[in-house]
Write a structure and sequence with these properties.
Strand content: 25-35%
Distance between the termini: 47 Å
Order of helices and strands: EEEEEHEEEEEEHHEEHHEEEEEHEHEEEH
Radius of gyration: 23 Å
Structural class: alpha+beta
Oligomer: single chain
Length: about 375
């Protein structure tokens, strides 16, 4: 699982910023932790404060390693610090082993790259020259300045039986990125989790089982047509259609006629169920798109309770999620934009709130920062 991310001059995070995903000394919600790490992190804050950017270092690493496309790294540099290099460092704990990986770039040129496993250097790269150390095997390589050497090593060697690195990449490849607003879903292992592709492969049972176990009053049907009360329901094309049938109204309704919240939920559920079952990083932007407060809380609680090797990173404006009954104070960051200084993180646990205190009220009163000042009078 991911332990820390450290960035500098990354988009709106101008100064060195540490995203820490290790548990602190709080003794509540043990199901939200795995050993010394946290199973979920929530980012809250004002619009355009940097909340989405807070999850982008993770998405960028996954995209570069596993997507077959070229990347314009220059767009990830801080616009108000272009003369400086941009650096990213990731720390993982995989099967009790420590993995540290980082790289530095300027514009589209990678300047440095380093990989350590349990403190032992595996990759060291300066500019276009790289060293690879696999146990007793040491080699020197020339590397294209626009490519990560780690990606080349993986695709050329599959790490040649190095069980730690293989387990690391297996964990990373299980990761999923969801934009709940646009309903865009990206997987990194080729798994098809777009709704119809998922139903074609797995059917509707897993989704309907989730509905039953969580007291939803409806179920999914996935058919070319449905006959009810001597009426045939079908769409114009020959493909199967997703219908929602409510228990108290025995009439199937095509999903595209449903509310925004239901459409978002049903499109997101395959990703949630797959991640909980298989593990990996689950990254969700605009999490609260069209959801009722109770539904938001149910989803977060479900992932925390059921996901044994799943790590959730999500962005939301919903302050009802700021509750010690749902998330620990060390699982919540407020993101605040401070002008030319860039975005800063304020971790709720740094203020040492007591378990009995109301985190939502504390946040709204400005204790943790990240609160807009709309409508306030200028002094």
């Amino acid at each position: 699982m991911l332990k820390r991310v450290i960035v500098k001059n990354f988009k709106c995070f101008r100064n060195e910023t540490v995203f820490d995903f290790r548990r602190t000394n709080y003794k509540l919600l043990e199901q939200n932790t795995k050993d010394k790490l946290l199973k979920g992190i929530l980012y809250v804050g004002d619009n355009a404060s940097g909340k989405t950017t807070a999850i982008e270092p993770i998405v960028l690493l996954l995209d570069i390693l596993f997507k077959d496309k070229d990347f314009d790294l220059v767009i990830y540099q801080c616009l108000f610090a272009l003369k400086d290099n941009t650096s990213l460092k990731y720390e993982f704990e995989i099967e009790k082993h420590e993995i540290e990986y980082g790289f530095t770039f300027k514009k589209d040129d990678i300047l440095k790259e380093e990989l350590l496993v349990d403190g032992i250097q595996v990759i060291k790269r300066i500019g276009e020259n790289a060293e690879l150390n696999f146990g007793s095997e040491f080699s020197i390589h020339q590397v294209d300045k626009s490519l990560l050497f780690l990606k080349r090593v993986y695709f050329n060697t599959r790490f040649e039986g190095n069980k730690i690195l293989i387990s690391w990449f297996e964990f990373l490849k299980k990761s999923i990125f969801v934009n709940a607003y646009t309903r865009n879903i990206i997987t990194y292992n080729g798994e098809l989790l777009l709704l119809k592709k998922y139903f074609d492969k797995y059917g509707v049972k897993e989704v309907n089982d989730f509905f039953i176990s969580n007291n939803f009053k409806y179920s999914i049907k996935y058919e070319k047509e449905i006959k009810k009360n001597s009426i045939t329901y079908q769409t114009d094309d020959e493909e199967k259609t997703v219908f929602l049938e409510r228990d108290d109204i025995s009439v199937p309704i095509p999903l595209f006629w449903e509310s925004t919240g239901n459409i978002t939920l049903i499109n997101m559920l395959p990703s949630i169920l797959h991640s909980v079952k298989n593990g990996g990083l689950l990254i969700i932007d605009e999490f609260s798109s069209g959801f009722h407060n109770k539904l938001e809380e149910l989803i977060v609680r479900y992932i925390m309770n059921e996901g044994t090797n799943t790590q959730l990173f999500f962005v939301s404006h919903s302050t009802n999620l700021l509750s010690n009954a749902l998330l620990r104070p060390d699982q919540i960051y407020a993101v605040e934009m401070q002008g030319s200084n860039g975005s800063v993180l304020n971790r709720f646990s740094d203020e040492q709130p007591r378990v009995a205190q109301n985190l939502e009220k504390m946040y709204l009163s400005g204790v943790f920062g990240g609160i807009p000042e709309y409508g306030t009078e200028k002094g």
